[in-house]
Amino acid sequence: MLSPSVFFPFPRFSRLLLSRRGDEFAETAIAMPVIVLVTIALMNLTMAGFASVNANNAANYGARVGSVHQQGPASAAYNAAQQSTEYASVGDYSVAVSGGGFPGAQINVQVDWSVPNLMGGLLGFFGGDSSDADIKGMAMSVFRQEGW
C-alpha cells in the first residue's frame, strides 16, 4: 500500500488534506437552516389545518343547531358556533350567521379563522409582503330550518 506521502511530498500538507475534522461542521452549517425552515413551515401548515378543521366543525355545528330551533334560529346557530370555537386552543375565530326565520329557510353560518404566520418575517427576504403576518381562511355551512 502506498503512503499518502507518495502523492503529497509535504507531510504536514498531506495530513491537512486527508483530515476530515471540519466536514461535520460544514455539513451542519449547510443543513441546519434548511431543517429549521422546513420545521417552521410544517408548524405553520399544522396550525392552519387545525384552525380550518375547528372552523368547519363550528360552522357545521352552528348550522345544525340553528336548523332545529323554532324560536330564534339565527341566535341559536351563532351561540352554538361561538361556543364551539371557544374550545379551540389555536387560532382566532369570528362567527357570522344569516338567514332562517321560517320553516325551509336556509341558515348560513360562516366562521372566519386566522393563525399567526411564523415565517411572515422571512417573506421580505424573498420579495413577499410581510405586513400581513396571518394565515387566514373561512368555513361556511348551510342547513335548512326544519318546521313542524
How would you characterize this protein structure?
The chain has a single domain, classed as Pantoate--beta-alanine Ligase, Chain: A,domain 2 (2-Layer Sandwich). It is built from four helices and three strands, in the order H-H-H-H-E-E-E. It has a three-stranded antiparallel sheet with strand order 1-2-3. Strand 1 and strand 2 form a beta hairpin. The radius of gyration is 29 Å and the shape is rod-shaped. The N and C termini lie far apart (97 Å). The model has no long low-confidence stretch (mean pLDDT 84).
Whole-number mean pLDDT: 84
User: Strands of the largest sheet, in order across it?
Assistant: 1-2-3
Fold-level CATH name: Pantoate--beta-alanine Ligase, Chain: A,domain 2
Distance between the termini: 97 Å
Helix content class: 40-55%
CATH architecture: 2-Layer Sandwich
| CATH class identity | Alpha Beta
Number of helices: 4
Query: What is the domain tally?
Result: 1
Instruction: Give the amount of beta strand, in percent.
Output: 15-25%
Order of helices and strands: HHHHEEE
Main structural class: alpha+beta
As residue ranges, the low-confidence spans are: none
Give a short account of the largest sheet: 3 strands, antiparallel
